[in-house]
Amino acid sequence: MRITDFDIGPDPYREETDLLESVMDGAEVYDSPREKVKIEKEYYKNYVRASGKVQKLIRAENKGFNVFFASVAVISCVLLIGMLLFTISYLPRYGVENPESTVVVKRYVECGLEETGAINIIAGIILDYRAFDTLGESHVLFTALMCVTVLLRKDKKNMRTKYEDFYTIRDEKYHELYRESIMRNVAAILLPCLFLYGAYVLLNGQISPGGGFSGGAVLGSGLMICAAAFGFRSTDRMITKRTANLITFLALGFYSFAKGYVFFTGANGIENRIPKGTPGAILSGGLILPLDIAVGLVVACTMFGFYSLFRRGSIGGNE
């Protein structure tokens, strides 16, 4: 084996690696046992010397990178602290009345129903006035799901043990909740109520407390209980890996394009032709209802995705 078979560094190590190769290739034929010992000692001495040079170069390179990394980290922290202190200097002092602090609150309370069509002002704020922030929160959930998928997914390079994979090996003697009759019977009664209540929270969010995040959490908990009580084969009939990815993509895409349209029309003074409906009715609030549903689907898929990845290393079935 030659030393170049190992990735020990770029071109700056060429001289040292050539020396190691010449030493290793030259110590193959011996004329006598004494010459063999002599050559092996010389080989070992030269090998240690060349290896020391290579390690010294690597340490010097790492030291330079560490200094650069520490400098960038310190500069970034100093800039961030400076920006925060500069922002704090413009804030009103504690206990001092700030007349401007009530301008936004008055706008929400007095004009919220007319501008959003939602009688629940919280839903109007989250999915209309500051919908861009809610869009960011939904993308944060999606990004977290992708990161967990990269870390925990089961593939050819990261296979689980036979005790963890109860799909392929069914005779392993370890406890699973779906084998308990009490768990299955309770889940059979509880699951329809959970899914129905989750749909109610999603559809009723713009006229009552609740909405996308809470309704999605209820639906996600229902999927997790279904998987725990009846096994992942049952949930794979409802939501496969492809289905979960498609639902998440369509929900985030619809949210982005819908609010992008609203932001574009509002910023350019163009009339928004999306009807707000009758206040108090289910189909009211303009885009708030479909955005509620989109956020709820993202939350439900994310919750079930986390649970499924921790349990079996994949989000859904293969189809």
Using the alpha-carbon principal axes, give the shape. flat
The assigned structural class equals: mainly alpha
Strand content: under 5%
Instruction: Quote the average pLDDT.
Output: 76
Explain this structure.
Helices cover 68% and strands 0% of the residues. Residues 1-10 and 162-174 have low confidence and may be disordered. The protein has 10 helices and no strands. It is flat and about 100 Å long. The protein starts with 13 loop residues before the first helix and ends in a 7-residue tail after the last helix. The chain is mainly α and 319 residues long. Helix 1 (14-26) packs antiparallel against helix 2 (33-89), helix 5 (131-152) runs antiparallel to helix 9 and helix 6 runs antiparallel to helix 7. The protein has 2 domains: 3-81, no CATH class; 120-312, no CATH class.
Briefly summarize what is shown.
68% of the residues lie in helices and 0% in strands. The protein has ten helices and no strands.
Describe how the helices and strands are arranged:
Elements: H1 14-26, H2 33-89, H3 103-116, H4 121-129, H5 131-152, H6 181-203, H7 212-230, H8 232-238, H9 241-267, H10 288-312
Helix pairs in contact: 1-2, 3-4, 4-5, 5-9, 5-10, 6-7, 7-8, 7-10, 9-10
Tag the structure with descriptive keywords.
2 domains; about 325 residues; mainly alpha; 10 helices
